[in-house]
Design brief:
Among the domains are: about 230 residues, no CATH class; about 40 residues. Helix content is about 70%, strand content about 0%. By secondary structure, it is mainly α. Belongs to the RRP1 family. It is found in: Nucleus. Keywords: Nucleus, rRNA processing. InterPro entries: RRP1. Its main location: nucleus.
């Protein structure tokens, strides 16, 4: 070995030591200025240097201790954003995936040293790292050209690399030192951050591929709590919250802020048939734990029901639209336009009917008032006619009373009751008149009785 090669190796070794050790020491210092300088040097090293896994683990230990001592929410959010942005600065996406892998290894090794007052900010950092890892998929994704297949070799390698990172670290069922706190939070934020990056514009094949670590964890993990959380927050949400069925899962929280009518719906294009087959294959596999078979079969049935419901919606859409989104029958388009015009006409008719009803109500009120006035006039005229009839009735009774009494004769005393009975015999004749006369009939005979009694008293005095 020549002296020149020895000098080159020593220079490389010194350069490697300065990258990982010096940056880690500055990140762990108490001065905020040294921390900012260390982050700047780390950005330049990430852009231009090829870092090994051991170097990245040393750097992540310095980042962990630096973030551990960071206080105040605004500062924590700013520092976590700067650390997560390092993921997208590497030249090669394999180095970026290695950086994400070292983060989960460091978080797992130091999880027991995080107290209840600092766990939230590390949840925030893990959310930002997951968000940046999904940005890598969007950054290196190659859109297929016309006539090419959707699945590209480079795209398969990118998705396979990220899936392998999750399988080996945060969703590794064989890792006995893995705490379920990281798994639970990872299941909560997975689909949320994926939708924030992709906005649902993701091929169903790659969406199924990126869910493989969860399926592997469900089939081989002994942690019941983590399995239930993955079932509820990942796969159930694909059927409810992020689906076209307009349902919300039991753990859905409405987002804060103003919601507009033109906001895009939160949904993924999911291949439910493929997921149903995968769950059935895993449930019937020999490597699957007996405890988890029931859950796998239930997820298989759930995806199968969603697949059948989705097929019904597709068939109903195929009967109306063609492949280009145009109406199959032009008559169908005319019918839909006619229905819209009829709805507009019906709305106008309803408004006219409401106006007409208001006018009719006013006319009815005026008509009722006129009818009441006419009824009052008729009642007054009827009362006047009744008074005239009463006068005629009184005159008839007076004529009957003017009959002269007989002279001194004993028979006359016997004839007095006959005189009283005569008006009573004629009363039925007078009662044939209108009914209002009956009210005053009982009063008039009393006057005749009084007058008939007075006449004999005068005669007896004489």
């Amino acid at each position: 070995m020549t002296e020149s090669t020895k000098v080159a190796k020593t220079v490389v070794n010194k350069k490697e030591r300065t990258i990982d050790i010096v940056i880690a020491h500055k990140l762990n210092s108490g001065s905020s200025n040294f921390k900012q300088q260390a982050l700047i040097k780390l950005r330049t090293a990430v852009k231009h240097e090829k870092l090994s896994e051991i170097q990245l683990l040393k750097i992540w230990k310095g980042l962990f201790l630096s973030f551990y001592n960071t206080d105040k929410l605004v500062v924590q959010d700013e520092v976590s954003t700067k650390i997560a942005e390092l993921t997208t600065l590497f030249k090669d996406y394999n180095d970026s995936f290695l950086f994400v892998k070292c983060f989960f290894i460091t978080l797992q090794n130091h999880w027991n040293h995080i107290d209840q007052y600092r766990v939230d900010k590390f949840y925030l950092l893990s959310r930002k790292i997951v968000h940046s890892s999904f940005k890598l998929l969007k950054k290196y994704y190659v859109a297929p050209k016309e006539g090419e297949e959707l699945q590209n070799k480079s795209n398969d390698e990118i998705y396979s690399g990220l899936v392998k990172v999750f399988k080996d670290t945060v969703l590794n069922p064989k890792n006995s030192t893995l705490t379920n706190g990281i798994v639970l939070h990872f299941a909560d934020i997975y689909l949320e951050e994926l939708f924030k990056v992709t906005q649902g514009a993701m091929d169903p094949f790659y969406l199924t591929k990126i869910l493989l670590p969860f399926i592997n964890f469900l089939s081989k993990s002994e942690d019941d709590v983590a399995c239930r959380r993955i079932k509820e927050r990942v796969f159930t949400r694909l059927v409810t919250t992020y689906s076209i069925f307009e349902k919300k899962d039991a753990f859905y929280l409405p987002k804060e802020g103003i919601r507009y009518s033109d906001d895009k719906p939160e949904l993924f294009i999911v291949d439910y048939g493929m997921l149903s087959k995968l769950f059935f294959k895993c449930a019937s596999s020999k490597t699957t734990l007996e405890v988890n078979r029931k859950m796998m079969y239930s997820l298989k049935n759930q995806m199968n029901r969603a697949y059948l419901a989705f097929k019904e919606i597709e068939e109903s859409a195929d009967n109306i639209l063609d492949e280009n989104g145009n109406y199959i029958n032009p008559e169908m388009e005319e019918e839909i336009e006619g229905e819209e015009e009829e709805e507009i006409v019906e709305d106008e008719d309803d408004e006219e009917i409401e106006d007409g009803e208001e006018i009719e109500d006013d006319e009815e009120i005026e008509g009722d008032a006129d009818i009441d006035d006419e009824e009052d006039d008729e009642e007054m005229e009827g009362d006047a006619d009744i008074d005239d009839d009463d006068d005629e009735f009184n005159e008839d009774i007076e004529e009957e009373e003017e009959v002269p009494p007989p002279k001194n004769n004993k028979k006359n005393n016997n004839s007095k009751p006959q005189q009283k009975s005569q008006p009573q015999q004629k009363k039925p004749q007078s009662q044939q008149k209108p009914q209002p006369q009956q009210k005053k009939q009982p009063q008039k005979p009393q006057q005749t009785k009084v007058s008939s009694k007075k006449a004999p008293t005068k005669k007896s005095n004489k």
